[in-house]
Amino acid sequence: MAVPGSLRRQPANRGLVSHCTHHHIVVFLLTFFSYSLLHASRKTFSNVKVSISSQWTPSCLNSTAPELQPYELWNSSHLFPSAEEATLFLGTLDTIFLFSYAVGLFVSGIVGDRLNLRWVLSFGMCSSALVVFSFGTLTEWLHFYNKWFYCCLWVVNGLLQSTGWPCVVAVMGNWFGKAGRGFVFGLWSACASVGNILGAFLASCVLKYGYEYAFLVTASVQFAGGVIVFFGLLTSPKEVGLPELGADEDEVSVEEDANRPLMGSDDVDDDDRNYSIQAADNDEEPKAIGFFQACCLPGVVLYSLAYACLKLVNYSFFFWLPFYLSNNFGWKEAEADQLSIWYDVGGIIGGTIQGLISDVLQKRAPVLAVSLLFAVGSLFGYSRSPNSKPINAVIMAITGFFIGGPSNMISSAISADLGRQDVVKGSSEALATVTGIVDGTGSIGAAVGQYLVSLIQENLGWMWVFYFFILMTSSTILFISPLIVREMRMLLHERRLRMLAE
Questions:
Q1: Residue (of 21, 354, 368, 36) closest to 187 by Cα position
Q2: 17 pLDDT higher than 60
Q3: Rounded to the nearest 5 degrees, what angle is found at the Cα of 250, between the Cα atoms of 298 and 109?
């Protein structure tokens, strides 16, 4: 008995290796470092908060010291009477950024599907660099300090930075097909962690000259990156005469089948695959689907809600982990910052390995489910970590592996899967919109989470914060449970068919 083409198990990386060109490598590197630079500017702001707080508050409270006149000139930078109020305002800026970033993701995805992705990404990088320069450097050089001006700039910065992720995921989705996508996107999604390290390095090199120079260096590098992207990024294989993925995947049965268990139904036959929102063989330029059409695509809403819960946990570690280590164990701030890197290391390894496993299985949801179940246990274990840096680092890396890994996979490989499933096959005009919806919903969860974490920690303590993380991780599993059940049934069905064929 012949095995159906949809059930032939083939190496996950066969299509990837056979179709990889130097154009694919250039696209991988350009999109990787473009988003790394966007993340570096965010990390720079986090790294210079102490310096900014010192600048915005009086440095001397000696009542016997002579008061310099005119008062407005010598004290114009003192926006707040105490460091606590300055820190609270800096936290408010974080929340403002996350909410504007979340709103911008929904809009940027739609814009990216209607305009040239290279233009949108380059505009976002260059414009964001100018805003960062104005926020941290220009205002200090001009000695202009105004809370409302800072808030407005950070709202604009969130909107501009939101152009990055939907565009880079869409470009990567155009170039890398289903075969090997989990591994490639798992490795590629380390760009955010690399950006965090890059931002910390750039800031530390020039911070001794003043925090304004940290913003200047970061903004200059980001602006230069935007220019390089504008002149060097190829958004689609057809720009250099290579076949698009829609046409190429029709000839590769493993890639055609790989889309089915994740998004399609069990009883869809090969003839029905020819009918889609946009025909693959249409010579006309495909029209971008609308926001509500994208929301109605199979799996989009479920993965968006799941990512809102998971990104809340992941970003809480990003924002609060150094503070937790310093506050809970009494370690120095510099030591806590260095130790927190192990969470990112675990996430990078987890995203790559879990993506590779999902390529081999040709299923995503079961891999996510297993990882998230282990994440619940690792969170419980980390909440009881002893006052030992080596042990803490090991458990932290394990936690990052099981939380950061699935987070990277949902935001990259799965978003690309959702934007290139059967109903939009042959067109890339849903990729950026779907990515914006998934990441935008996740960012809303992350923004709300920053407030909830501080509220829970202040009233109940750190142990209840970890219980909250466990609840959110369990909710992630709950939201994708219909997809887990469907894909597990597909795996069992394929296994039975193979046994009958033998």
A1: 354
A2: no
A3: 40
pLDDT tens-digit map of 204-254: 788 788 888 989 999 999 999 999 999 988 888 888 777 766 554 444 444
Task: State the DSSP string of 297-352.
Answer: STTHHHHHHHHHHHHHHHHHHHHHHHHHHHHHH---HHHHHHHTHHHHHHHHHHHH
Residue 41 has, within 13 A of its CA and on its CB side, a CA count of 36
Specify the 3-state DSSP secondary structure of 113.
Answer: helix
Residue keyed to tokens 């192990």: 342
Q: Tell me the one-letter amino acid at 432.
A: A
Nearest C-alpha neighbor of 326 from the set 377, 403, 381, 392: 392
Tokens standing for residue 57: 């508050």
CB of 300 closer than 8 Å to CB of 318 = no
Q: Is residue 36 within 8 Å of residue 191, measured between CB atoms?
A: yes
- Tens-digit pLDDT profile for residues 192-209: 888 877 887 788 788 788
364: its two tokens = 């995503």
Phi and psi at residue 64, to the nearest 5°: -90, -5
Check: CB of residue 319 under 8 Å from CB of residue 377. no
Tokens 């995805």 locate to: 109
| Cα four-point dihedral sign 163, 166, 169, 173 | negative
The answer to whether residues 125 and 34 touch, using CB atoms and an 8 Å cutoff, is yes
- Say how far residue 423 (Cα) sits from the centre of its chain: 25
H or E segment and range at residue 115? none
Q: What is 39-105 written as a DSSP string?
A: HHHHHHHHHTHHHHHHHHS-S---TTSPPPSSHHHHTTT---SSHHHHHHHHHHHHHHHHHHHHHHH
Global model pTM greater than 0.85: no
Contact 205, 217 (CB under 8 A): yes
How many of the other CB atoms lie within 10 Å of CB of 166?
35
Distance CA 331, CA 339 (A): 10
- Torsion sign over Cα 465, 369, 444, 147: positive
The one-letter amino acid code at 187 reads: L
Amino acid letter for position 389: K
- Ramachandran area for residue 23 (φ above 0: left; ψ -120 to 50: alpha; else beta): alpha
Kindly report the number of other CB atoms within 10 A of residue 372's CB atom: 22
The residue with tokens 């946009």 is 278
| Gap between the Cα atoms of 59 and 51, Å rounded | 11
Amino acid at 374: F
Tell me which residue of 379, 383, 381, 351 sits closest to 367, measured CA to CA.
351
CB-based contacts of 241, cutoff 8 Å, min separation 6: none
At 51, the amino acid letter reads S
Tokens of 159: 């909107």
Residue 443 φ/ψ, nearest 5 degrees: -70, -30
